[in-house]
Amino acid sequence: MKRVVISVLFLLNNYVIANTTSAVYNLRIAETTKRVIFKNRPIGHPYVADAVVLGTWRKDYSGSTDAVAAGLGSFVYTPPSYYLRLDFAAGHAHEKSVLLGTSTRNQMDDIVITGGYSKFIHEHSGVTFSGLIGIPTHKDKAFTGAQFGVGHPALGVQIDGAHMHYGRHGHFVTGAARFIHFFPRSVPVPLPTGTECFKFTPGNLVDLYIAYMIDDKKEGFEVGYNPSFLFDARLCPELDVVSRQVNYIRSSFYGAYKRLIMVHDLFSAITLAASYGFDHRPKDVGNKHIVTVWAAWGIKF
């Protein structure tokens, strides 16, 4: 039993690094692209296509690193008052673990379907209520190497709010709170006695988000803060070490620049953004540095 516990401890280092990389669940990317989706909804153009290229690099406290290069696509239907959004992505994950060596994988991310209803509280303030469904496109194999996507079914809810001040330049304060529950799946875990299957759930993810924007109609600037909390991760047969090593508290800060353009008679926008983050816990196998950059292009038609 002692050898099994030690092996699982080693593999948890790999899991913390590899399995938490996902483009479709990245709230900072979702919120910055959402600005393009909902800004100045033109009558007769209820559809939005959005394409994002992104790169993420991380280094944990043990010295292990991983990197992901990915493309994210979104298709959105946005009639007045509500929306329906489909997110999908594919990427290349590369990990260099101090304990397990180098591994790479090319994978699809999970598919996320989001729907919501928007309501203006008064002329300059609004709120949006949303629900989401996460559909895995592959098995969770994060304990055996690099992985892109969570690989577990998920259900979530989110609330967004915005308050707008108009002057020479538009000033916006926006915020969001999101809760996602990931359901358990059987995962392969290599042990000294051979590969065995465990029942694993990544637990629950809570994201908070606050941002300040300046928008002069043709271009805009945005800065924000995104704390994240992963809790109640479990491995069955139960090992207390799982909750201590997999669960995390994370801070991420980001900045974005947006340029609005017209493609013939269609409304379009380009976004360039970058974020930096780190884990407050765990300190032994958590991420010391997390750097993400992305560029997005959205068009209404």
What does this structure look like?
With 301 residues, the chain is mostly beta strands. It has a single domain (2-300), classed as Beta Barrel (Porin), CATH 2.40.160.40. It has helices at 2-18, 27-38, 240-246; strands at residues 47-60, 65-77, 82-97, 101-108, 111-122, 125-135, 154-165, 170-182, 185-191, 194-201, 204-215, 219-231, 234-236, 248-263, 266-281, 287-300. The strands form two sheets. The protein has a twelve-stranded antiparallel β-barrel with strand order 1-2-3-5-6-7-8-11-12-14-15-16. Strands 9-10-13 form a three-stranded antiparallel beta sheet, with helices on one face. The longest helix has 17 residues, at 2-18. The termini are far apart.
